[in-house]
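> run fold AbrB family transcriptional regulator
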Amino acid sequence: MRDDRLEAKREAEQLDEPAAEARNLAERLGLDPYPVRYWVVDHDEMNELIAYGGFQQRYPHWRWGMNYDRQRKKDRHGLGKAFEIVNNDDPSHAFLQESNTMADQKAVITHVEGHADFFANNDWFGLYADRGEDGPNAVARLGRNADRLAEIGRRADVDREAVERLIDAVSALEDTIDQHSPVNAARDGDAIEPTSDGDDPREELQAKIDELDLSEEVQGDVFDEEWLTSQDGGVEPDKPRPDVLAFLRDHGKRYDSETGKAVDREPWETTVIDAIREEAYYFAGQKVTKVMNEGWATYWESIMMGGEGFAGSDEFLTYADHMSRVLGSPGLNPYKLGFELWTHVELQAARRDVVDKLLRVDGVTPENFHAKIDIDEVADTLQPHPAIEGAGPAMLDELAELAADGDPRVDAEIVDRALSIREGDTDAADGPDIEAYPWKLLTYEGLAERHYVLSRPQHRNALRNLSRSTLEERARYMFDVDRYETVAEALADVDRTAGWSRMYEVRESHNDVTFLDEFLTDEFVRERNYFTYEYSQAGDEFRVASTDAAAVKRKLLLQFTNFGKPTIVVLDGNFKNRGELLLGHQYNGVALDEQQATATLKRVFELWGRPVSLATIQTEYDDKELRRAQRQNREPAGTEVGVRLQYDGGDVTEHELDDTIKSRIEADEVDYDTKPDEWLS
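> ok
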C-alpha cells in the first residue's frame, strides 16, 4: 500500500507543472474556471468514485455497490476506461487515473479546465442551492447528507430496512423534480399551501366538525377516521405541478401495512426525502447540459492540446488516439455532438461578422455578392499574420516589431523578457518558457486570430456556400452606415474574436434543449449527415426514418427534454374526492414503458400512503391493420387511447381515462423552450 501511495505521489508531482500551465493557458484563452484540485487515484479508487457519482462520501445504500461492480467489470474487460472524473464544486475536484499516459493526463487536465469553466459560468448550475460567496460547496453538502442518513440508519428506534425502502422509493423519483426552478422554490413561494394561513388542513377540518357540536357517536359515525384520511390529501394544484417529489414531501404520508391506513411520517423520513431531493438538484445541472458541457470541454481541450501544442511532439500520436476514441464512441455521443455544435456556433458568428463587413462594401449587394467577392482572396486575407501563426522563439523579432507598434495581439512584456533571455541579459530560469509554451507570447486577441475558425482548411468554403436568401436576410437588418470603399478595408475590420465571444455568451444561459433548438440548423444536419431511425411495427426492425433537419431536431429534443425521461406532473391531490393522487404523463407522442411505469407507481404509493393513479396515452393497433401493414410494407395506423393506471397497495389496475383528463395531458405541439424568460438572449 505504501509503494502504491508513493507512486501516486510521484505521478502527482509530475503533473504539477502541466496543471499550472493548463490553467494559465485556459485563462489566456478567455476561460474563467473554478479552481481545480487534482487527485491521482488507482483503478479501484476510480471505480469507487464513479460509483459514488464523483464524490468520496455518499449516504449508505446498496446501489453504490451495484454501480461499483458494474464499473469494475467494464474496466476489467476494456468496455469503458475512465480517464478522469470531475465534480461541479468550488473548488472543483478532478480525479486522474494513475495508469494514464502523460499524454492522457494532459488531455484530461485541459478537458477538466473546460468543465470547471462551464460549471462556474453556466446559469443552470446556479439553480442548485447553497451557492453563496463560497460557491456550491457540494462536497460539504453531500458529506453532511451522508452523515445524517447514516446516523438515521444507526438509530435504535428506526428500522434499517425501512430506511433502505424509503431511499429506494425516493431515488426512483429523483428525476421528477422541477429542474427549471431552484431547489428551494417549492418552499419559497411556489409550493401549493394547504390553506391560506398555513394551518394543517386536517386540523382545520376537525375544528369545523367540532363547531357542529355533534355527539361523539354521531361524529364517529358520519366523520369517521377513513373519511378524515380521505380529506387529508385534498390539495388540488391550480395547474399541473412538475415537482412531484416536492409535492409528495409536502403532502404525502406513509402507508401502514398493519392498519391498512396512511399515517403521518416520522421526522427522519422527511429528512431522507429532503436530502435525496436536494442531491437530485445538484446533479440536474449536469444532466440538462451533458452535450453542451462535454462538447465545451472537448473543444477547449482540442485547442490547447492540438492547436497550442500542449501535447508534446512525442505525445501527439497518443493524444490523437485518445481523442479519436472519445469522439468515435458509437451511439448518441455527447462529446462529438457537443464539439461539432460548438464549432458550428463559432463558425456562424465568425461568418456573420465577415458577411456584415462585406455587405457594407460600396457596390456589393446580396444579388451580386458572389460575383463581386473573390472568396479565395478573402480566405487568404483571413489567414493569421505569419508571426502570430508561428509565434515562438523563431518569431521573436517579428513579434517584437508588432509589440513596438502597440499591437494588441502580442504580449509585449513577455516578448521583451524572452528577448532579454536570448541576449543573455536575464537568467532563463527567471523568464517564460516559450519553447514549451509559445502561447505566452500572445494575448487573447492573438490566440483568437491564431485559431480563427474561418482560417481553418475545413471551413475555407464557408462563405462560398452562402445562399442569396441568407445574404438578403443579413442585409435586411443592416443600417447604411460604416461603409467601406474596398474589400480589403472591410476585411481589415473583421473581429477575429467574434466566434469565441459568441460561444461565451451561449455558454452562460443555454441548456441542451435550448442549445439544440437554436443551433441544430438545416446546414448542420446536412453537412454532417445526421438522420433519425425508428422501430418499424410492420417490419419488426429498426429503419432509417428521415434525414430531414426538423425530424432530426425533434428526435434529439425528445431525448434531452426532462433528462430524457417522461415528464410526469401532479394533476390532483384529491382525485375523486378520496385523497387519491392523480399524476399525469405529459404525452408528446412517445408512450411510457408500462413495466417501468407500474414499478414507479408502486414507489409513489410508498410516499403518498393512499391510492395513486397515473394518466397516460397509449397507441393501440388492430390485429387486422397490423397484418395489412406488414403485407404492404408500411407502418400501421394506430389509435391513441387514454389510460389510467391505478395502484392502491394490491395489483396495478388499468382503467379508461376520462376525456377531460386526456385533453390535459396530450400535447398538440411539443414545447421544448425550457429556458426561463429572463435568460433569453
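The longest strand covers residues 612-620.
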